[in-house]
Specification:
Length: 229
């Protein structure tokens, strides 16, 4: 397995994204969290998400994936109650089993996971714009440039409980990509699919450059994974 991860603050003063890309036991864990609630709050919330995710998976293996999301939600919600704050974070995570080539993916918010093969698959954003698309109010082309694109409808820490979308036993394919919306809001899916044909390190660097060239206004975090030799 080959993988590479990069996080770029871009035009922002501070990077509120956090990520994990490492092997735990006999599988790999990848995750991207994008903080909400200002510089200090957003950075703290996204860090909590990654820490709780890692600890839950270390305790329970792949069965700790959903628990990691839920524990992160509870911890951030408690901190909000204690501090009278309103911080939160998105989180998308993937467990990759190298021996079987299977993926388990979970997400809350609008940080995405993509799987590239014969077709491109991606997680569904929990955002206002995605809800408008799902209801047929706007089309996909309108969604790309929508002024309320950054409004999420689901995030960790904002409510006492959270619904986590889980995608089980996804088959091996050419590449997997996890990212914050600093990439996905500024680079089209078809362009991302073409760039990830490169090695993970080259793909990450090219995607960062593409997002910045396209005037990304957010932090940009990307993880690219593939099974190619």
């Amino acid at each position: 397995m080959q993988y590479y991860a990069v996080s770029e603050k871009g035009v922002r003063d501070q990077n509120e994204d956090h990520f994990i890309a490492e092997k735990i036991d006999d599988f790999f864990v990848f995750g991207v969290a994008d903080g909400i609630g200002g510089h200090i709050g957003g950075e703290f919330a996204s860090k909590i998400a990654i820490v709780e995710l890692k600890e839950a998976i270390k305790r329970k293996g792949e069965h700790g994936l959903k628990e990691g999301f839920e524990k992160a939600n509870s911890t951030i919600f408690y901190e909000n109650e204690r501090r009278q704050s309103n911080m939160g974070t998105t989180l998308v995570a993937c467990i990759a089993k190298e021996e079987t080539g299977e993926y388990i993916i979970a997400n809350v918010g609008d940080s995405r996971a993509y799987i590239f093969g014969d077709k491109t698959w991606k997680t569904s954003d929990h955002s206002l714009v995605q809800e408008l698309v799902n209801k047929g109010v706007i089309g996909k082309e309108e969604a790309d440039g929508h002024p309320q694109k950054n409004i999420v409808t689901r995030a960790l820490g904002l409510e006492e409980s959270v619904k986590v979308d889980i995608y089980n036993e996804i088959e091996t394919t050419s590449a997997v990509l996890l990212c914050s919306d600093g990439l996905s809001d500024y680079v089209k899916d078809v362009e991302i699919a073409e760039i990830v044909k490169n090695s993970p390190k080259m793909a990450c660097n090219k995607l960062i450059k593409k997002a910045l060239d396209n005037k990304s206004k957010d932090n940009i975090t990307i993880i690219v994974v593939n099974f190619r030799e």
